[in-house]
Amino acid sequence: MHSLYPEIEPFQTHSLATDSVHKLYVEECGRPDGIPVIFLHGGPGSGCKENHRRYFNPEKYRVILFDQRGCNRSTPQGSTESNTTSDLIEDMERIRRHLGVDHWMVFGGSWGATLGLLYAEIFPEKVTGLILRGTFLARRQDLDWFAKDGVNRIFPDYWEEFISVISPEERDDLIAAYHGRIHGNEGDEKKRFARNWSDWASRVVTWNLKEEKEEEHDEETILHEASIEIHYAKNWYFLAENKILNDCDRLPKVSTIIIHGRRDLTCLPEASWSLHKHLPHSELVILPDAGHLAGEPAMVDALVQATDRMAELISRT
């Protein structure tokens, strides 16, 4: 079984200004003359972590990672001003041009897969390959599964905690209710609702893990992440319904590897299956014992295999 590559430090970091209040944290790892790959983290609202550098052979890849607007080391943290899906896609192009990259491979999981697909539909000529994990298609059915009617039937006890802080007359639209409280309250009240939102999401995403301990975050970080996540959810990710699948014919005919855990209850395997059916040239790998998270052993194995193989394919072409 493949494991992550050894720990590595960036050979260069950047603070990249945008056309708004936001400044992006960008880092480069591996070989400066290696195969360029852009890593897209999930969320929306999360951020890059040290282990994200380790899915790629540092002797072959020039790994480019960035924290999306408002996330992690990008500033201002938690800001939803000028923070839309289109802005994030523009940021990817801004980074590509700033770093002098002609073409790059796109690697994204969950919300990162959403961004990767949208970017590739708009800039197909810039993409040399796609590796997508736990695809999230940002359809209404995908959000409803998480926050309306779906996974609540698997975790009725946790769901009861999640909705208990919302009045019964508001529970038909929990996204709007939580958005109003996280963005409308002050201080501790805002943090309390952010924690409740985060707890629900964490319980669903880690249900498949046996011994791994969930990463702990401080209250301020939880608030920043939840603020951005609920901002995007409230606005239906700033996308027309089913946009990704409807525009699949715009995607480049490049090597595309889609990996999904069958036990994924955050983003259902149906999403990757539907994407695969729209992309006859793609390869779909369904992992029987994996859930949603990139750090699960079976998922690490599959992703590292995929990046190793993609390096060979891109080098040949």
CATH fold name of the largest domain, please? Rossmann fold
Q: Tell me the span between the first and last alpha carbons.
A: 28 Å
Helix content: 25-40%
Number of separate structural domains: 2
Molecular shape: globular
Rg computed from alpha carbons, rounded to a whole number of angstroms = 19 Å
**Which segments are poorly predicted (pLDDT under 50) over 5 or more consecutive residues?**
none
Strand content: 15-25%
Structural class: alpha/beta
Q: Superfamily at the CATH H level of the largest domain?
A: Alpha/Beta hydrolase fold, catalytic domain
- How many β-strands, per DSSP? 8
How do the helices and strands line up, and which of them pair or pack?
Blueprint: E1 12-17, E2 23-30, E3 35-40, E4 61-67, H1 85-99, E5 104-109, H2 111-122, E6 127-133, H3 140-147, H4 156-164, H5 174-184, H6 187-205, H7 219-234, H8 243-246, E7 255-261, H9 269-278, E8 283-287, H10 297-316
Parallel strand pairs: 3-4, 3-5, 5-6, 6-7, 7-8
Antiparallel strand pairs: 1-2, 2-4
Helix pairs in contact: 4-6, 5-6, 5-7, 6-7
Question: Can I get a quick summary?
Answer:
This protein is α/β, with parallel strands linked by helices and 317 residues long. It has 2 domains: 12-138 and 240-316, Rossmann fold (3-Layer(aba) Sandwich), CATH 3.40.50; 141-238, no CATH class.
Note the main attributes of this structure:
317 residues, alpha/beta, Rossmann fold, 2 domains, 8-stranded mixed sheet, 39% helix, 16% strand, globular
